[in-house]
Amino acid sequence: MTRHQTTGQRFVSGYGAKLKDMRLGSRFAAMLSALSVALPSFIGATAALSPETAFAQSGRKLPLVRDAEAEDLLRSYAQPIFKVAGLGNTQIDIILVNDKAFNAFVPDSHRMFINLGVILEAETPGEIIGVIAHESGHIAGRHLVRLREAAANAQIIAVIGMILGAGAAVAGGASGNSSAISGGAAAALSSGNVGQRSMLAYQRGEEAAADRAALKYLEATHQSGKGMLKTFERFAEQQVFSARFVDPYAQSHPMANERYRSLATDVMKSKYYDTPAPAALQHRHDMVRAKILAFSSHPNEVLRRYPRSDKSLPAQYARAIASMKRDGRAAIKEIDALIRQEPSNPYFQELKGQALLESGNPKAAIEPFRRALALKPGEGQFQIWLGYAMVSSNDKSLLPEAETILKQGIRTDPNSGIAYSQLAIAHARQGETAEADLATAKGMMMAGDVDAARRYAARAQKNLKRGTPAWLQADDIVSYKPPKLNGR
């Protein structure tokens, strides 16, 4: 992982979040951006773990992070849930968001976004699996499609109210009745609130339905719902004070204590209630949790959470990463100690390669990245790391292989902006200017810089043979028109 940060904003909907000041038009459309499990974001953004593009929604961007180990763990959690939810044949990408708030959401039927905070706060796999099960309930229940329909109906209610209110005001003006005028104006002003509350009531129902679906999926996969209850307990504790001042009918989600009570009986009577996660899965969870904490926190915080007296492997992992952030070369000894304990762990090899690369020794980083790829063949992020190290080594003899490996990485992981930038460098150093421009254009598209992407693609087109695959790819970028947002 590298530490490159993109900027972004959070969505406002969540487990305990309320949609503030939601009006008709573009703000109504914002309600449709995601169905989520979240609390209001009290915790600020962290240093990014890995270089990647930001997901744009309604002109906003989310800071995304990439980590092969964390993504592999989340896929392990999700696959059994997806299967019983009838989503096994659907390509659903699980994407990490660089935010320490406990939040997850689905903006469509193919992407599930999970904040780093979910992993950092979850002590057991079951807490994350419960979140994934809830989001799967939204996808399987087609809640996003139905929510858009409900929003349209809510807007209709509001518009009708405004028309009737305006009519009453006109009639009052004609009759000279000032109370009729004021009454009509009040009706017009309140009609938006009626539509909003209708929409929120519908959304609360969908959240409750997703909770029930999550329990069904957990039961079908022989997993405990205890993790879900723990999540709601956490939320309820944070809402103890604020709940006294909150209108429950102005929330997009049911209150946490209400959700806890609704689910507790069924969760506790399940024969799987006391079934713990397999030890191997808990170990993987602890390792990823330590890793994310180490990459997203100050080294002093890492040592506080994982003191030298803690000899567990997750603690050693966290301290090695903290050391690497201070001095990559000095951390090699600690990383080698990890490798000796688990020589077949590809992520320890990846960490060693990263430490060498970031400390200015890319040529030495090539071998550990090769080992990581040998231990986990086909891992796109390892291929990109390896190509990156080869390009950075300034060894011209490695450029053809670097180009091949980077292209393999892009086929596996097509959304990596870093892969395109390194591929552009590899092409340029081999005198392939048009191909370098095209790779740069693709990378710019991944970063959301459409204007710059068009400029590079147009330049590439001039030096590419018309009608070739590369020329057509450049043409696609030149002619790309961003979709209209919020119906505008």
Automatic annotation (TrEMBL):
<dbReference type="InterPro" id="IPR011990">
    <property type="entry name" value="TPR-like_helical_dom_sf"/>
</dbReference>
<dbReference type="GO" id="GO:0016020">
    <property type="term" value="C:membrane"/>
</dbReference>
<feature type="transmembrane region" description="Helical">
    <location>
        <begin position="28"/>
        <end position="49"/>
    </location>
</feature>
<dbReference type="GO" id="GO:0046872">
    <property type="term" value="F:metal ion binding"/>
</dbReference>
<protein>
    <submittedName>
        <fullName>Putative Zn-dependent protease, contains TPR repeats</fullName>
    </submittedName>
</protein>
<feature type="repeat" description="TPR">
    <location>
        <begin position="346"/>
        <end position="379"/>
    </location>
</feature>
<keyword id="KW-0802">TPR repeat</keyword>
<keyword id="KW-1133">Transmembrane helix</keyword>
<dbReference type="Pfam" id="PF13432">
    <property type="entry name" value="TPR_16"/>
</dbReference>
<dbReference type="InterPro" id="IPR051156">
    <property type="entry name" value="Mito/Outer_Membr_Metalloprot"/>
</dbReference>
<dbReference type="Pfam" id="PF01435">
    <property type="entry name" value="Peptidase_M48"/>
</dbReference>
<keyword id="KW-0378">Hydrolase</keyword>
<keyword id="KW-0862">Zinc</keyword>
<feature type="domain" description="Peptidase M48">
    <location>
        <begin position="74"/>
        <end position="264"/>
    </location>
</feature>
<keyword id="KW-0482">Metalloprotease</keyword>
<dbReference type="GO" id="GO:0051603">
    <property type="term" value="P:proteolysis involved in protein catabolic process"/>
</dbReference>
<keyword id="KW-0472">Membrane</keyword>
<keyword id="KW-0645">Protease</keyword>
<dbReference type="GO" id="GO:0004222">
    <property type="term" value="F:metalloendopeptidase activity"/>
</dbReference>
<dbReference type="InterPro" id="IPR019734">
    <property type="entry name" value="TPR_rpt"/>
</dbReference>
<keyword id="KW-0479">Metal-binding</keyword>
<keyword id="KW-0812">Transmembrane</keyword>
<dbReference type="InterPro" id="IPR001915">
    <property type="entry name" value="Peptidase_M48"/>
</dbReference>
